[in-house]
Glycine zipper family protein
Amino acid sequence: MSDDDGRLAWIHWPTMAKGVAFGVGVGLILALMLEDFVFGMVLGVVNGIAFGIGWSRSR
């Protein structure tokens, strides 16, 4: 990683996209179970982002 890569070069973007997509899917299921769409989607996206960041840091 060179200095030209930028501040977010350590993030593996394909993993981040997969994590967010999976999180949205889980969030939709959670939204149906809890009958609260916004909470389910927000929780799903946050989980997906957290997974993507955690997996990128461990690489």
